[in-house]
Amino acid sequence: MVFNLLSLFAMNKKHLLLFVFSYISFVCNTHAESYAHDTLVNVLRNEVQFYFDKLKNKETPAYFISLRVVDNKRLFLSSDFGLSSMDENHTRILTPQVRVGSPDLDNFAYLAQNRPSSRFPYERPSTSLPLDCDAIPVIKEVVWNGILERYEAAVKIYQQMKASQKTNVTELDSVPTFAPSAVETYYERPYSEAETGIDKERFQKYINDASRLFKDYELTSGKVFLDYSLQRTTIVNTEGTVIAQNRKAYRLMLEAVAEADDGTPCPLYEDIFAYSEKDLPTPTELEDKVRDLAIRAEALSKAPMAEAYTGPAILSGKASAVFFHEVLGHRLEGKRRESVNNEISGMLNQRILPASFQLYLDPTLTTYQGKALSGHYLYDDEGVKGQRVDCVKDGYLRQYLMSRTPVKEFTGSNGHGRAANDRDPNPRQSNLIVETTEPYSETQLRNLLIEELKRQGKEYGYYFRTVKGGFTTRGKANAINAFNVSPIEVYRVFADGRDDQLVRGVSLIGTPLSMFSQIKAAGGESELFTGFCGSESGSIPVSGTSPMVYVSQIETQGQKAIIKSKQDLISPPKTTEAENTGAMADSSLIFKAMEDEMAHVCHELATRHNTVPLFVNYVLERKHTSGTESSGGVCVNKRKGNVKNSISVHIFLGDSLVTNDTGVEHHPQNIPDEIGYDRIRDAFRSKSEIAYQGAVQRLDNKRTHLKQNPKPADNAVVPEFKRMPPAVWIGPSALTIPCPVTDMEQLSNRLSKVFSDYPELFNHCVKVYQKRVDYYRLTSEGQKILQPDTVFHITARASIKTDGNEVKTEYYRLHVGGINDLPSEDALIGELHRFAEYMQQKSRAKAVEDLYIGPVLYEDDAAMELLAEKIADYSHSFWISIRNQSDRKHRYLGKQVFPPALSVCQLGNDSVYNGVKLLGYRQVDADGTKPMTLPIIEKGILKHMLTGRIPSLGCPASTGNEHFDGLSRTLETRYTAGVFHVTSNRPVPYSKLYKRFLKAAKKAGLEHTYIIRKNRTSPYALIRVDLSTGKEELVEGNYNSPSREQFKRMHAISKEENVYNLDPSGGKGLGIISPKAILLEDMELDITPNRARHIDEAFYELRH
User: Fold this and answer.
1) In the Cβ-directed half-sphere of 652, how many Cα atoms lie within 13 Å?
2) What pLDDT digit, counting tens, does each position of 63-104 carry?
3) Which GO terms describe its cellular component (predicted)?
């Protein structure tokens, strides 16, 4: 709509104002109608204004609030030599931003967008929203909690900065902290299912067929990835901006790795980006790209290593684009800091590139010269319209990339405030475009290079074809700025006209201004790179395009081969059996591959290295994890699980008294979801090479260390390794019947509705998740074990405001073997109601401070924890690496460590106790040894200790306690306590024990006494009992655990028992059958007040 400005100004002023107001109202209403039916947009608009109206009048006022929601659905397909993997996830992340103070000084004044710092620490600001947009009450609850946390953090940071300003003056003090921006309204309707559907099976075949082609070449890795993402970003703020925009993207990635004769890996990559499925390569086009990449990787592996070099060079268009992104692009990001030296900060309006060079960033472009640009967006993550920014014009530095946080030189945003889903925006790059007004042909550029080589007397120069990335450093004002870029395909260009020679192992180094000053010319055709860039505000998609660039002087450094020569490694077998693939490959295939490869590796070590390992251990883990999280009856997080596979190798060298084992973690290697004979063998062979090399080095280091720091005499005679007899035990797979995610989602939704009956609770959720694992183990001693493991968890969380305006958060936890082992749903709902009622009582509990001496009754989990911790402490002698000796707990054998009435036994034969399944029961341990039923403590005397394969002081032989450490990332087996049973020769019924407890307290002349009671529904309860009335009162306070001497003065335990399945990561064993209650007769409790987070009562009342 175009208006004649003269006629407008000729109007009566009143009529003019009415006209302008009517026009603005018309425009806004038109936009409002477009999102009138979008629940999420309207809830966010209403909520952000509601909280702004309240917080703008606080003592420390909020002057700006924004809410950004990123709904991201992602399908990630990968294929490794024709074997596939798949991951799917759906998240909806809310990131509020609250600014307090004023635009002249707010909580972002000295921070890189609230990035954590030593002066002003800050936590990540995001939280999950319900995946269902219509769940209005839950959305409002999450928004309230998110704004509360951001406001509280903002006030704290703002107050710290105000105090800091009194003693620290910086150049930023006079620079505003927030820039005004136009109010924007832009709405795209959400994608329909028809617009976003993808044929997973077809695309899996597409990439499998492509990656299988890599097998035709001598490669160590040949992978194809497809990343399909659907993202919807919704932004509202208190200025009136409303943005709802979509992004659908496909990213296809190729990886080929060949190995050089010296053992150095030589990787090459290809990255293809598209906004539409039809723009992806056809299968034939993809095959051409795969084969080209493989051939180039093979050639690279045969290329000689480069030496350090100084002289002229040419960078290809793609290499130039990466160079400009890393070295110049990051220095163009106008980030506010207290002390900055990005080396170009003082060069505004000065020439930094040749006069023919233009460099700009333009997020509005979707393509450039017909190629899709991944850095495209219409509005940035602050709701500011994206715009072209001409950073370098005719060689002169003219502009920075800006967000709404000003810097000294520029005070307004140009639409480049960007962030990952869960971060605050920073100035970041988008689509970087380099152009020249004086393009040279490739031949002309090569001639310039050769002329310069001859002038400098150089035999050769360099042509950089591909670059995989790099890093750049920026320090304080007096620091040296530098960069290091990693070219992977580099050619020597000879001055005498010989054919170009491919070399490898080059690093391009230097300082930015020095490098910029040597850029002399550019080509005409541009090349593109696409990818993701990481920085303080997270990982974001970017693109860069540039023509070929000639540089008269560059500096490189050569790299040494990082692995020993190839003849020192394990060669592949000459032949392998026919491959058998499948996501549910049977155990016979898996063990066959493991057996054949172990035999091959041991033969190679013996014949080529004259080494017979003391022990070789192969583990393959197949794991399914899935689960959901719900709040208020709707799902906020969901994880659909596929079976994931990983392998680990441990090789022991040395002898039984001194091995290479130093406690250093051996990280496992992931292999595709779909597994086959050849791929299993390849993975174990590769991992065996790494394990063997590490074992040699660690054994040498350890022997040297022991010469200078010998073990104590009694430790020195204890073997570090003990051989075990062969054993075969194949258990039933745990992967055959996982609980469907839909069932878990429905259950978590129903259970989470319980908390809706308690309006004073907030930050509440219920999580339901499962882990099902098959451990395959094969050793050189003949242990062949398939050990299944399953666990099913339900956890709940809730917070509440106390009468003292503190926030208390507690957790409900339950874990069983599977969904069928759960209590009935009615029973679960009843427990969650009791948990919620406990939280209500917790909010009213009085804080106490008391030095109490007298009897204390420990009940349920409190009794179990007291016993389990002390049993675990005495049942095994642990090695303390830092001291180079054991913990010497073996000296307690034969001595009284527990009260005389107590006995403890490890159960080896019981799978069920009183109708409760014991999850810690194992028919055999990881060595195939049957766990012993063994008395540990008899009438308070320590009789026996436990161990696994590795002997310890006090236990020279395995007791069947070598278990798979399922929660470790190493896939190692290690000692783990089993299931303990605690008994007494004179237990007392609980009712009688309770009376004894009160009688003992009265006899001591006390007015009150204490019960420490913990269970699923009352996770942390300190009970004060009034001895005059017998009334129990929940109170608040921290308290100490009993000492060993106090524990030994135990008066009695209850006859009633509880059965606990424990999380082995807690170090207390796999389970314990414990008395319901323990009475300690003479206990000293030093009860002190809890320190908890305070909440503004007025803000709490804003919940609605």
Assistant:
1) 22
2) 999 999 999 999 999 999 999 999 999 999 999 999 999 999
3) cytosol
d(CA 1029, CA 631): 41
**DSSP code, position 305:** B
Closest among 793, 794, 776 to 785, alpha carbons compared? 776
Helix (H) or strand (E) holding 325: none
Q: Which residue's structure tokens are 């299988």? A: 212
Neighbours of 273 (CB within 10 A): 23
Q: Tokens representing 882?
A: 């830092």
Beta carbons of 783 and 928 less than 8 angstroms apart: yes
Cβ proximity of 1102 and 51 under 8 Å: yes
Pairing of strands 1032-1036, 846-847: parallel
User: What tokens appear for 353 in the block?
Assistant: 């590139």
Give the integer Cα–Cα distance in Å for 1102 and 540: 35
Question: Which helix (H) or strand (E) is 238 found in, with range?
Answer: none
Alpha-carbon gap, residue 686 to 684, rounded angstroms: 5
Question: Residues 673, 625: contact at Cβ < 8 Å?
Answer: no
Q: Given a cut of 80, is residue 120 above it in pLDDT?
A: no
Question: What is the tens place of the pLDDT at every residue in 653-674?
Answer: 999 999 998 766 668 899 999 9
CA distance linking residue 621 with residue 680, whole number of Å = 12
Per residue in 779-796, pLDDT (tens digit) is 999 999 999 999 999 999
Cα–Cα distance measured from residue 1023 to residue 1018, given in angstroms and rounded to the nearest whole number: 11
Query: Sign of dihedral through CA atoms 406, 409, 415, 419?
Result: negative
What pTM was estimated for this model as a whole? Answer: 0.90
Q: How is domain 35-298 classified at the CATH fold level?
A: PmbA/TldD fold (3.30.2290)
- Rounded Cα gap, residues 1019 and 1027, in angstroms: 24
pLDDT digits 0-9 by tens, 556-614: 887 665 544 445 578 888 765 555 555 456 899 999 999 999 999 999 999 999 999 99
Q: In sequence order, what DSSP letters do the residues of 690-749 get, joined into one string?
A: HHHHHHHHHHHHHHHHHHHSPPPHHHHTS-S------EEEEPPPSSSSPPPHHHHHHHHH
Tens-place pLDDT, residues 527-549: 999 999 988 889 999 999 999 99
Tokens 């909520």 sit on residue: 47
The DSSP line for 940-999 is TEE-----SSS-BTTB-S--S-EEE-TTSSS--EEE---EEEEEESS-B-HHHHHHHHHH
The amino acid sitting at 709 is N
Identify residue 1101 by its one-letter amino acid code: E
What residues are paired with 483 via a beta bridge? Answer: 472, 510
- 20-41 pLDDT, tens per residue? 333 333 334 445 558 999 999 9
Q: Is 1010 left (phi over 0), alpha (psi -120 to 50) or beta?
A: beta
Determine the topology of domain 587-836 in CATH: PmbA/TldD fold (3.30.2290)
What span, in angstroms and rounded, lies between the C-alpha atoms of 131 and 196?
17
Enumerate the CATH 3.30.2290.10 domain ranges in the chain, comma separated: 35-298, 587-836
